[in-house]
Amino acid sequence: MDTNAPLTIGAVARRAGVPIDTIRYYEREGLLPEPLRRASGYRSYGESAVAQLRFIRRAKDLGFTLEEIRELLALSRDRQRGVKAVKQRAQQRLAAIEARIAELQRVRDGLVELVASCPGHGAPEQCPILRALNDGESA
To answer: 36-37 and 43-44 as β-strands: parallel, antiparallel, unpaired?
Structure first.
């Protein structure tokens, strides 16, 4: 395949593993540059669009927001401070994920206690799960 040949939006979507609507959305949001238009009005993309979409998709998979991805894309072109700043953004994302994991573990532990304390039968007002949800108390 000629890697310099212009690509249609469908071809870019297949190669990057994203829906066509996602490409249009990223263009509107400024994450992808507006593509050139053919005489027919159809969008015409290059390989760089595929690479940029893969970058965005992998960054999203790592939990980065679109705003953070916009920053990462800009930093990836910054030869002076880019790598240091990218590392700082990744460290911030990691800290946020670790805090979220700690919160989820706390919630899990509370739910484990409630499930263990509930016999699974009897009057609803005696159910520790329902009491905790109604009263805000924990088991």
So the answer is: antiparallel
**Third-level CATH fold of 1-63:** Multidrug-efflux Transporter Regulator; Chain: A; Domain 2 (1.10.1660)
| Tokens matching residue 69 | 């991805």
102 token code pair: 């700690």
Cα 20 from Cα 133, distance rounded (Å) = 43
> How do residues 37-91 score in pLDDT, each as one tens digit?
888 888 899 999 999 999 999 999 998 999 999 999 888 888 777 788 889 989 9
Q: How far apart are the first and last CA of the chain?
A: 63
pTM of the predicted model over 0.85: no
Specify the 3-state DSSP secondary structure of 35.
coil
Q: Are 109 and 99 in contact (CB under 8 A)?
A: no
